[in-house]
Amino acid sequence: MAATARARVRAEITDEITAIARRHLAEQGASGLSLRAVARELGMVSSAVYRYFPSRDALLTALIVDAFSAVGDAAEQAEVTRPREDVEGRWVAAALGVRAWARAHPHEYALVYGTPVPGYRAPADTIDPAQRVNLVLLRIVADGVASGVVEPGPPLRTPPSLAADLAAVRAALAPDVPDAVLCRALLVWTQVLGGISYELFGHLQNGVHDLDAFFELQVRQGAAYLLRGAAR
Amino acid sequence: MAATARARVRAEITDEITAIARRHLAEQGASGLSLRAVARELGMVSSAVYRYFPSRDALLTALIVDAFSAVGDAAEQAEVTRPREDVEGRWVAAALGVRAWARAHPHEYALVYGTPVPGYRAPADTIDPAQRVNLVLLRIVADGVASGVVEPGPPLRTPPSLAADLAAVRAALAPDVPDAVLCRALLVWTQVLGGISYELFGHLQNGVHDLDAFFELQVRQGAAYLLRGAAR
DNA sequence: CTCGTTGTGAGAGCGCTGCTCTCGTTTCTG
DNA sequence: CAGAAACGAGAGCAGCGCTCTCACAACGAG
Q1: CA of B5 vs C1' of C15, distance in Å?
Q2: Could you tell me if A28 and B115 are in contact, meaning their C-beta atoms sit under 8 angstroms apart?
Q3: Which site from A109, A176, B79, B174 is most exposed, i.e. has the minimal number of CB atoms within 10 Å?
Q4: Nearest-nucleotide field for A5 (CA, C1')
Q5: Cα separation of A216 and B173, whole Å?
């Protein structure tokens, strides 16, 4: 770890830049993130920042990676508060945890689950962190299948193209989880994200007032469906 | 309708501006929409456009209203291809119609269901058009309840705050639709939007390849849950 | 220790953006 | 017909991402 002085100060400044950028993002959103403003706050001239990030988008990519990681953390930290055998509780906790994080960090949430930034194209660096939360969820589901709490239900008749994709997921991440359960999990999870986006992006305005109660109700309904394929 | 010549030409130019803006939006997305570029294409100087729209955001708001209306159209046109008594088919068709529209107009979709634009705050003009699609969906659900195809299921125990909101929706838009069904409808609809966003914003990349088959499977599962409170 | 290489910050500058203000001209209205 | 209102052009301000050049400091090799 005996890096040269230059390498150390470079790492430090890089951290400072991302820290300031993170704050600007949290305060004003992605569209308000200005490389020049970050430089100004750092006491640097804007061109100097380009020594550390080749473009504004590269800086934003770093923040996206951070945000994905934070989503994974939120799910995991919420989930582990429940005993391992309480599969339903773990799922509900993970969903509530992600929502709480999203409400606390709406711009970061928008960055990862909202409209992709202008040109839209996910650099390879972002796909690994994006999987973190999926792993947390799949582990819960896999535990539920193993312990029998998750009812497989009738086998799903999927087109071959789809069956292959599901088989790949199963082989890589969730052994012994049948197609029907994988589909239900994805269904319920997209509902969770859809619900968060719906709320966060203002579509429940003037319709639902007790957002906490509403979201929790929805999540519990979703969890019941995930486990038993039916309401309640 | 004998408007003055000035009023007529004003309406024409306003339409031209929104038409060009709509095209720019479709091609490059909201962040690429430049008032100056629109003015340039119109053969005007940028300041002249401000006679018609007080700000770039106002222009964008007009496009948002358009997009909301287009979503409503997509749902309605897809839905009416099914016989009135085929409630499940109508719901599935509406969902598939909205997805098809979203894939054909990703930037418009992002505008209404993605991250709200920078400052985020929905002008009052946008809430009416936003309701259009909800009305289409609620009508389907209400028809299903009336004909008995939608099973109410066990009554939902909702906190009073939530019950009041649901009662308001019922009174205004969907008489005789019980809370449990309203909740299921909202649950399934947020799943549809979540699924579209998940797909459109790239989260299924490298995971699912046959996106059409996958989405249709999900929608059918969702519809089954909406009608019968259970898978299949 | 010296010398050439490389990393770094400052500065100027390009073309773009949203938006404002002024100034003639055109059109409407009382 | 005269005053008021609407309109388009033009210049200009501050901001943006990004590029290029230049001086200087830190580094590795001899």
Answers
A1: 38
A2: no
A3: A176
A4: D26
A5: 24
